[in-house]
Amino acid sequence: MNPEKRRAFFEALKSNNPHPTTELEYSTPFELLAAVLLSAQATDVSVNKGTRRLYPIANTPEKIYALGEEGLIPYIQHIGLYKTKAKHLIETCRLLIERHGSQVPEDRDALEALPGVGRKTANVILNTAFGHPTMAVDTHIFRVSNRTGLAPGKDVLAVEMALLKRVPKEYLIDAHHWLILHGRYTCKARKPDCAKCIVEPLCAFKEKNFSE
Predict the structure, then answer these.
(1) Burial class (CB in 10 A: 0-12, 13-18, 19+), 181
(2) Distance in angstroms (rounded) separating the CA atoms of residues 212 and 199
(3) Percent of the chain with pLDDT over 70
(4) 131 backbone φψ class: left, alpha, beta (φ>0; ψ -120 to 50)
(5) pLDDT single digits (tens) 106-163
(6) How far apart are alpha carbons 193 and 191 in whole angstroms?
(7) Catalytic residue among 14, 120, 174, 208, which?
(8) Is residue 211 scored above 90 in pLDDT?
(9) Helical H runs in 39-148?
(10) Which position among 63, 85, 138, 154 bears the catalytic label?
(11) What is the 3-state secondary structure (H, E, C) of 13-31?
C-alpha cells in the first residue's frame, strides 16, 4: 500500500469514527491497567462485567491489594485465566505501591517490569492513558495489517515497527483503536464484511467476501 493509499485509509477510518477509544471501561490510568491485565485472552465485555462490580469497591492499588487474591477472585472468576490474573494484579498493586507511589508509571521499562505486563499491554497504557504514539499489536491489528497490505509482517513486533513507520503521524495516536475496532467488527477473521467495509477500495486482500 503506497503512502497516498495509507493516508486515504486512515482518513476513511477517521471520518467514520473521529474519536475512537478502547471499549474497556475505566476512569484512571490504574483502572485501565487493571482492565488490560484482565483482558488477556478474554473479551472486553467480560472484563467490563467484572470491573463494574469491582471498581465501586476497590479501584486503587491499595484497595485491590487489601482484597488479596481470594477477595479479588469473586469479581473476576468469570474471566478466563482468572487465578493467574488475580495473582498478577495483586502483585502489580504491591509493586505500584512500593516502587511508584501507587501511580502507574509513564515509562515502558517500568511498565514491563510489572507482572503480566508485556510489550502490548505497555503500549496500550502508554497510548490510551498517556497519549503516546505507540502501537499495541493484537490479533486484530496483526490480521488487518497483513490482510489489507497496510503493514505486513511475520510477527507482531514486525507489524508494530511497520505501522510506526508507515502510519501518517497525524493519525498515529488513534490508529491503534481504529485498527482494533475495524478488525473486531468488519475485517473479521473468518468472514470479513467486505461489502460494508469503508476501506475496501484501498485493500489488497485477494479473497474478499461480498456475500450477505
Answers:
(1) buried
(2) 18
(3) 100
(4) left
(5) 999 999 999 989 999 999 999 999 999 999 999 999 999 999 999 999 999 999 999 9
(6) 6
(7) 120
(8) no
(9) 44-54, 61-76, 82-100, 108-112, 119-124, 139-148
(10) 138
(11) HHHHCCCCCCCCCCCCHHH
CB-CB contact of 16 with 24 (8 Å):
no
Q: What is the DSSP letter of 115?
A: T
Greatest CA separation for the chain: 56
- Mean pLDDT on 37-60: 95
Q: What is the Cα–Cα distance from 134 to 112, expressed in whole angstroms?
A: 14
Mark whether 174 is an active-site residue. no
Identify whether 138 is a catalytic site residue. yes
For helices 3-16 and 172-185, the axis angle rounded to 10 degrees is 70
Q: 174: part of which helix (H) or strand (E)?
A: helix 172-185
pTM here? 0.89
Distance of alpha carbon 120 from the chain centroid: 7
Cell of 149: 497490505
Burial grade of 161 (CB within 10 A; 0-12, 13-18, 19 or more):
middle
